[in-house]
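Appendix C reproduces, verbatim, an entry submitted by the partner laboratory led by Prof. M.T., so that reviewers can inspect both the input and the predicted structure.
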Amino acid sequence: MLPCRSAVRQLYNAGFATLPLRYPRRAISFPNVRAHNRFFTSQNSIPAFSYVQPQVGPDTIFALSTAPGKAGVAVIRISGKNAEEAVLKMTHMKKLPAPRQAMLKKIYHPSSKELLDKGIVLWFPGPQSYTGEDTAEFHIHGGNAVTRSVLDALGSMTQYRIADRGEFSRRAFDNDKLDLTELEGLADLLNAETEMQRKLALRQAEGSLRQQYDGWREQLIKCMALTEAVIDFGEDENIEDGVLNDVFLLVERLRESIKAHLNDNRVGEILRDGIHITISGPPNAGKSSFLNTLARREAAIVSDIPGTTRDVVEVSLNLGGYPVVLSDTAGLRESSDVIEMEGVKRAMARISTSDMHICLLPLPDIESFEELNGHKILNESITPDTILIINKSDASNTMSSKETIERLAKTLGVKHTWLISCKTGEGIDQAYESATSSSALITQARHRFNLSACLAALDMAADYATSDIVLAAEELRQAASAIGRITGKVDVEQVLDMLFSEFCIGK
């Protein structure tokens, strides 16, 4: 029986974002429960939702979750339907300990009853556990022999096996405890080497991206449901024209939000993988001194002789929690020296591929403004995003030079200018903070690719809005599918295999 016009209006007014795509040809479902809600296409090519039950592997898995080798404590994690058996048999307890409460117990071999160690036992019943399955942990002494004896004992039990790399996290994903963006954040957190990498990874692991992307996807599904309702019942049920207008107003808002999200200059990926900063400028401007000041060591040769640096000198640093690769380059000037010009060529190539470009100029020389403005190679290297740093503030009258610096910055079209002295340290902290003040959002190229695909589909949907509502609905479906691939709702098996291969065994 077809739904009446009032029922469709009630659903629309209620703002349900998870209605099936074509109703009432199949029953309305409300997959708001915390389980996998994946798109699928049925035999009659009508998109709909399926409720996927949490997947529980046939085997109970176990692994050492702490680093191998001698340590004060080693943690062995167990997950699966038979985890309870390991706790009872290996501790000789008659009943399981209270959930999430540590108990000091002797640990025995399940068959020979030999005492293996004495340690802490923790029990996490599913689904309130990391994996969503029954999970146990043995916190034992961290000697190699002790750890090996407990692992061997677990391996002797029926349907127990050592976990594959990342298998605990894979089961957490399968049981909807984590989505794909949270897993990627967890992987980044495990690999974080700097404070800013840690902060970014932790925000993602806690679900900041999941909330944003799921919110967009829910709005897209709402648009899809209403568009499908207009296609199926627009003539028969006299659905108001305002429904479609509201749909495409929402589509336009989504387009603007995704565009703003994409327009972040790849800051997230750069922070995750490391920021490449190139320092350039004319010979003897103090580029090598500036690099050494940031590195806090003699990483580059400093000399009063112009043209000392011929090749690119790279230094990896942790600047305020940001992973940075600083490149000191040859001085930019015209020269008859073939080797020096090769250095200039390499410097220009490095500038073009770096994430950030710092142009260093000596304060005494910028007062000959017209001469500097006519420097061809230097001008070619500078863009509006270049950070202009004026060095040797100790060698000139700073107040009389400010006007010249402002005029130079305006002529070159740069937005950021800093006055420093590598000799006295003046202005170094401010320049340093300027170079590390950006925040990050998108952390994976995969996210950017799928968001771009989503945006392209929304653009097409907007184009079809007044000409072909059926094609518009299909583009909305493609847009929602692209968002779903980011969080792991659809078509992510290859991504998962690659991601979990980077995890340690006990994660």
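Residues 208-233 form the longest helix (26 residues). Additional entries are available on request from the coordinating office.
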